């Protein structure tokens, strides 16, 4: 183990500045992908838990016709991560505004206004949920090529070693080949978890989008029955 550690340190010391720059870029990409994944997993967990608690509470207020209480509930700090709360709040607030202002809109026009408010909230919330997730796809698709760049540089160094010694022996090329293999492996180590995280988080976002669409549809149906 000690010898392996020394070899890695010596290998790093023998790397050229281009290879080290490539390694630094890959380290940054790795830290970024892990940071995004941890933050999104925490946010999605909070969104799922808070929405599960929020749904029956707001449904109780809606059945009682207490729209102002439903709005107050939706704006509570304990539901700030809930994607359902954001969508439902937009619909109820717009309906309540139309009711209070007496804007003179017909039933169909008022429902269209409420529906558009819900659609805007759904789009904005969906975009917030995807924040940072696309960067994981970028990292997963580009990290192998960044590693390949380091590999090419390592191979070039290997040929430079051959040219400088005038010999094709293993000693002349071993450092360059080892450098190339390390860069290749590092690129794959960065890319594979990023792709996994991206697929996992995208699946959760799709599920949340379905939940928001269902809630929006149910809320519009509620207002249709209420104004009938």
State the gist of this model.
By secondary structure, this protein is mainly alpha-helical. The chain contains 7 helices and no strands.
Question: How would you summarize the topology of this molecule?
Answer:
Layout: H1 2-14, H2 17-63, H3 67-74, H4 83-101, H5 107-129, H6 133-165, H7 170-227
Helix pairs in contact: 2-3, 2-6, 2-7, 3-4, 4-5, 4-7, 5-7, 6-7
* Portion of residues within helices: over 70%
Percent strand = under 5%
How far is the N terminus from the C terminus?
77 Å
Q: How many helices? A: 7
> Uncertain runs with pLDDT below 50, 5 residues or more?
1-6
Strand-pairing-aware structural class:
mainly alpha
Largest sheet, in brief, is: none
Walk me through this protein's architecture:
The chain has 228 residues and is mostly helical. It has one domain (2-227). It is 88% helix and 0% strand. Helix 3 runs antiparallel to helix 4. The longest helix has 58 residues, at 170-227. The N and C termini lie far apart (77 Å). 30% of the residues are buried.
């Amino acid at each position: 183990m000690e010898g392996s550690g020394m070899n890695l340190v010596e290998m790093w010391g023998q790397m050229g500045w281009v290879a080290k720059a490539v390694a630094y870029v890959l380290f940054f990409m790795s830290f970024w992908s892990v940071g995004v994944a941890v933050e999104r997993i925490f946010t999605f967990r909070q969104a799922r838990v808070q929405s599960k608690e929020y749904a029956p509470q707001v449904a109780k207020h809606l059945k009682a016709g207490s729209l102002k209480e439903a709005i107050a509930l939706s704006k509570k700090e304990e539901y700030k991560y809930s994607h359902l709360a954001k969508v439902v709040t937009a619909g109820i607030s717009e309906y309540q505004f139309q009711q209070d202002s007496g804007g003179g809109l017909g039933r169909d026009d008022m429902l269209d206004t409420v529906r558009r408010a819900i659609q805007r909230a759904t789009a904005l919330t969906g975009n917030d949920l995807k924040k940072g997730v696309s960067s994981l796809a970028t990292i997963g698709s580009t990290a192998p090529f960044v590693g390949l760049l380091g590999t090419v540089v390592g191979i070039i160094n290997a040929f430079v070693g051959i040219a400088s010694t005038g010999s094709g022996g293993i000693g002349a090329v071993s450092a360059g080949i080892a450098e190339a293999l390390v860069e290749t492996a590092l690129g794959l180590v960065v890319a594979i978890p990023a792709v996994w995280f991206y697929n996992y988080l995208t699946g959760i976002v799709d599920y949340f989008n379905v939940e928001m669409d269902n809630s929006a549809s149910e809320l519009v149906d509620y207002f249709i029955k209420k104004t009938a």
